[in-house]
Write a structure and sequence with these properties.
4-stranded mixed sheet; 7-stranded parallel sheet; alpha/beta; single chain; 2 domains; UDP-galactose 4-epimerase, domain 1; binds nicotinamide-adenine-dinucleotide; Rossmann fold; 9 helices
């Protein structure tokens, strides 16, 4: 298929672009590099340096795209609370412009990166797709708005739409000398921050809150390996049906506390990871664990790297070879 990958210079988009190319697809990456990295761009992909708001310049009716995989977004929940206008303009207004371009060009399918953040504080665990959607931050709200727009677009204009609601993504894509991994700036995700501490690049890790109703008082999250997540995108592309908006949660169905994650980072790296407990962060749910039963049933998706050791081990291999050694 001829595919447009928005956000293909970012963490997840670059891994998916790589796997699409490896599976014989023709890939164009649309990414203005506002948070992405030129080094993450696959050399065989065509790169268009434009914001998604201008996607119509690439998605012309003659270009013949078979689908769009839409990763481009701002992703920091904390920042979204202090600069909400940035998130609405980028994530929601930008996505609406992309959907307009998809419709005008007659592109038949779109796969969207949605998020567990649409659920807010869940009333049921593990969380099914039918759970109440009540985001506790602007980031989650901007993503939920796009999910809703896609439902309308599928009904009104026959788009084959799929939203994949990721839980916490971790790990790296490793193949021979090639390694593609997580590199956010500033980094807000637990595993890469813990690796920076293990590598001696930060003096300590902050854990926000140790009085939650969980086994050790720290928050519980569900982690999914980026390669398993990428495989779900390839399955979603072929499972998309015109006129339907399918929505799937993607996680492993196992929760780990922040302290358990740090312990695995210590085991994998063999290094100390000093921890400091900080106050709870506003809007952080105690526990987020996915039910991915629907993805397993309808997409035939089965995670192949479900353990935290898989994810931390691969993330550490990427960090050592591509971040530490290149400084
Ligand atoms: N990382 C996670 O754990 C996680 C969890 C749930 C959902 N998601 C979603 O997955 C997607 C990818 O996340 P990521 O971790 O790879 O983020 P990332 O920041 O590494 O990548 C995002 C990419 O999008 C590009 N981009 C952003 N706004 C753009 C715009 N207006 N025009 C063109 N390019 C733009 C950036 O330059 C960057 O390359 C996001 O939509 C995010 O909301 C991520």
């Amino acid at each position: 298929m001829k595919l447009l990958v928005t956000g293909g210079a970012g963490y997840i988009g670059s891994v998916v672009a790589r796997m699409l190319l490896d599976n014989g697809h023709d890939v164009t990456v649309l990414d203005d590099l506002r948070t992405g990295h030129r080094a993450a761009l696959a050399p065989e992909a065509t790169h268009v340096d434009l914001p998604i708001h201008e996607a119509a310049q690439v998605l012309t009716p003659d270009a013949g795209f078979d689908g769009v995989l839409h990763f481009a977004a701002l992703i920091a929940a904390g920042e979204s609370m202090v600069r909400p206008e940035l998130y609405w303009r980028n994530n929601t207004v930008g996505s609406l412009a992309l959907i307009d371009a998809v419709r005008a060009a007659g592109v038949p399918r779109l796969v969207f990166s949605s998020t567990a953040a649409v659920y807010g504080n869940p009333l049921e665990l593990p969380i099914p797709e039918t759970a109440v959607k009540a985001p506790t931050n602007t980031y989650g709200a901007t993503k939920l708005a796009v999910d809703m727009a896609l439902t309308s677009e599928a009904i009104g204009h026959d788009l084959a739409a799929v939203s994949l609601r990721y839980f916490n993504v971790a790990g790296a894509y490793l193949r021979g000398d090639l390694a593609i991994g997580e590199r956010h700036d500033p980094e807000t995700h637990l595993i890469p921050i813990a690796l920076e501490v293990a590598a001696g690049r930060r003096d300590k890790l902050q854990i926000f809150g140790d009085d939650y109703p969980t086994v050790d008082g720290t928050c519980v999250r569900d982690y999914i390996h980026v390669v398993d997540l990428a495989r779900a995108h390839l399955l979603a592309l072929t499972a998309a049906v015109p006129g339907r908006h399918r929505i799937y949660n993607l996680g492993n169905g196992n929760g780990f506390t922040n302290r358990q994650v740090v312990e695995v980072v210590r085991e994998v790296t063999g290094e100390p990871v000093p921890v400091e407990t900080a106050p709870r962060r506003e809007g952080d749910p105690a526990e987020l664990v996915a039910s991915s039963a629907l993805a397993r049933e309808e997409l035939g998706w089965v995670p192949e790297k479900p353990t935290l050791h898989d994810m931390v081990g691969d993330a550490w291999a990427f960090y050592r070879t591509h971040i530490l050694e290149q400084r």
